[in-house]
Hints:
alpha/beta, 2 domains, 13 helices, 47% helix, EC 1.1.1.411, oxidoreductase, L-threonate dehydrogenase
Amino acid sequence: MLALTLNRVDSPEPVSRWPAPSTRRSRVSHPQPVTVGVIGLGAMGLGTALAMREAGLSVIGCDVSAAARETFVTAGGRCVDSPRELGEHCDVVVVVVVNADQVEAVLFGEAGLTAAPGRTGLVIQCATVAPSYAESLGARLDAAGLFLLDAPISGGAAKSRQGRLSVMASGSAEAFERAAPVLDAMAETVHRLGDAAGMGSRVKLVNQLLAGVHIAAAAEAMALGIRMGIDPEALYGVITRSAGNSWMFENRVPHILEGDYTPLSAVDIFVKDLNLVHQTGRELTFPTPLAASALQQFTAASGAGYGREDDAAVIKVYQRLAGLALPGAANDAEAPS
């Protein structure tokens, strides 16, 4: 009875229900009505819940924040106070929270989903967690009588609101079948990556390694260019038309140019995710030196007080170390107290 709260991944097992990323899919009609619970009404979870409502699903929200619950209710949604209560009403529960600790609390805590009497159904777990945790979660939920779809998401708040996320999913055939109307409402692309929990989280971890390294590299490149006296707007124009460009450079550098570090994805998200890369590398006795270097930059930015700012604020490490004059509002900003 459950489901939860970033970039394209090619799937070896494409699902015919969802077309290629460049094509907006049509809605699919599903014969059985489904009530969906969404745990976590932050930027991604709220957008996903609203998109599912607009697709015709009955959606109930749950969040520890009264303000988040009120936002969903004001938009026409319904909320309950605990995951346990959600489990009493929902066929599918989508978990869209920040980390494994929060997943653990909402599923297995005193008022968690598994505490709901007579609960059955499906959990769609969308948080970025260690693959080893995702694997163990599948076994634990199975013992509790619940299916799990390991389904990290990518695309950001805007695409979540549009129901156009990319989902990196793995789970049993029955889990995919139960999830079909929910995935159709929240995702533009579903990558079917395997028949057991863990593979979706493995692919998401690779994505986060690349995303974090690309953001850190973009920040370092811009910082070096500014230090050499290159006009940052001109530098951005050249790089986005040259071989050194990346999706993250093109997407994040405008935040630097505008001096706007309003968080769309925060520095601390990459502290968490790159630590997961590091942890997984240790488990596999596998070196990840580029990810480790990027992790140190994000950790330095967080330690300087920028953890809740947009992840492009990793460039402020160079502002502090080298007295760099950054564009826009950032020139006037010292580390938060």
